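Structure in, sequence out. Go:
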């Protein structure tokens, strides 16, 4: 498949309420947003100007204690997945592996992260949260197509002309809508949007999110269920290659 050369713009077209902070290609959106969240405030959207990845982070100011506010990761993940789905070719699937891995037609394409103040207790309201995501747009010559069957990039999947900036802008629009829903109706509708994309290890299993945000898996066979803790998953960041600074291959 021929690659489309995309220019990375210096500015983003964002909805009202967002303020963009652009980093150079070597920047780390998640680390920068966590480091400056207390000063920059809610709605700050940090993004890295690179052509091979859509890497961005947004600052949130929750009103709930950390144990409840942490569920904002579901909102961020749903907004990221919906942004990808809004730009992808028809009849293609965007899936989520609990809690923070994004797959496109089964191939790992990116994931999300959640940050909060280190000294904030579970029953305390955090001064800020940071949701960050990275989506692989192109292998950028690092890997030949088909050599990594468990991973993919958007330009390998028919996303003609879709660059990182377009994905970040789409994310911001979906996130704004979800924040409005959360504030006026609570998180239930957003959880449904997240749940409809959750991958199952085995067909027929029943998935549910507990009040604590953990994943509860009930096997179709009727055997004992299992619980996958949200906090453990967020700390593991299983999709991330920390050395390379992007999604695993």
């Amino acid at each position: 498949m021929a690659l489309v050369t995309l220019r990375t713009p210096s500015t983003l077209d964002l909805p009202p309420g967002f303020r963009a902070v652009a980093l150079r290609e070597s920047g780390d959106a998640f680390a920068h947003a966590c480091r400056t969240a207390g000063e920059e405030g809610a709605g700050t959207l940090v993004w890295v100007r690179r052509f091979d990845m859509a890497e961005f982070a947004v600052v949130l100011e929750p009103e709930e204690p950390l144990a409840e506010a942490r569920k904002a990761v579901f909102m961020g993940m749903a907004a990221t997945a919906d942004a990808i789905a809004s730009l992808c070719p028809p009849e293609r699937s965007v899936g989520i592996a609990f809690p923070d891995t994004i797959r496109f037609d089964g191939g790992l394409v990116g994931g999300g992260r959640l940050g909060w103040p280190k000294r904030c207790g579970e029953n305390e309201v955090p001064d800020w949260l940071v949701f960050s995501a990275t989506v692989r747009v192109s292998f950028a010559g690092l890997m030949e197509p088909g050599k990594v069957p468990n991973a993919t990039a958007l330009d390998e999947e028919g996303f003609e002309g879709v660059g990182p900036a377009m994905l970040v802008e789409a994310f911001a629009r979906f996130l704004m809508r979800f924040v409005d829903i959360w504030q006026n109706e609570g998180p239930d509708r957003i959880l449904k949007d997240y749940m409809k994309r959750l991958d199952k290890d085995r067909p027929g299993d029943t998935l549910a999110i507990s009040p604590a945000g953990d994943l509860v898996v009930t096997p179709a066979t009727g055997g004992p269920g299992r619980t996958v803790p949200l906090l453990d998953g967020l700390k593991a960041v299983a999709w991330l290659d920390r050395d390379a600074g992007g999604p695993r291959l």
